[in-house]
Write a structure and sequence with these properties.
single chain, 228 residues, mainly alpha, two-stranded antiparallel sheet, 11 helices, 57% helix, 5% strand, globular
Length: 228
């Protein structure tokens, strides 16, 4: 299976107004309603998180350190993706609204500039008894923020000239065009802590899923495990 569909779900393809009401939560029901090919075309993120979870549980049960590391890393990546609003929409990079580049702007540029000042004092992880429902709840919450991500940047764009919006920074062996510090700071302020909230939620969610997999595997004693 192609890796790309595992990282997103363009949920608004199925309905712009009420996509979470029309989309079945279980994979078999979704396949029956829309076909496997359609689901693969528009992303399988929630079901992928669920599948990866059980792979992680099995790795814990088998005391396979390398597999635990692999599946922990993989599911962490997918859960983090689920917290990005633009991983839940057809307009994933603003290409439908002439906002090309907004994906990396929200996901990379803003954290690079401002994440050092985020609050990383987080609540304890908790046991998750239904991973699929948990994944869907994350995605729905992220999708509900999608309009703000796009609308705020569109409004900000009208206030900045191109010269003010972009700047050049030395990266590696060359110079790269990036969103300027002033434009980034203005957008970050308009989002009113959204990136920080999603990052914090992502960290706790990943930890909770790791913890839940260990619990469901019977709480194996990992102190004696050795990497091959």
């Amino acid at each position: 299976m192609n890796e790309a569909p595992r990282h997103f779900i363009d949920i608004d393809y199925y309905s712009e107004e009420n996509p979470f009401e029309v989309m079945p939560r279980k994979w078999e029901d979704a396949v029956e309603k829309y076909s496997k090919d359609t689901l693969l075309e528009y992303g399988i993120l929630p079901w992928n998180i669920n599948n990866q979870y059980y792979s992680l549980v099995n790795a814990f049960k088998e005391h396979d350190v390398n597999a635990v590391i692999k599946y922990s890393s993989d599911i962490g990546h997918y859960i983090a993706d689920a917290h990005v609003p633009l991983h839940t929409t057809l307009n994933y990079n603003g290409q439908l609204t002439r906002q090309d580049g907004i994906h990396s702007f929200w996901e990379s540029r803003l954290p690079e500039l401002f994440a050092d000042n985020y609050n990383y004092i987080l609540p304890k992880v908790t046991y998750v008894d239904d991973i699929l429902s948990f994944a869907w709840s994350i995605i729905e919450n992220s999708h509900n923020a999608k309009d703000s991500v796009l609308l705020f940047e569109a409004k900000l764009n009208m206030r900045f000239s191109s010269d003010e919006k972009y700047s050049f920074e030395e990266k590696g062996s060359g110079s790269s065009k990036v969103y300027s510090l002033a434009y980034s700071a203005a957008y970050h302020k308009m989002l009113d802590g959204m990136v920080e909230r999603q990052m914090r939620s992502s960290i706790v969610s990943i930890g909770s899923v790791w913890y839940s997999a260990w619990i469901d595997a019977g709480q194996p004693n990992m102190d004696t495990w050795k990497m091959e």
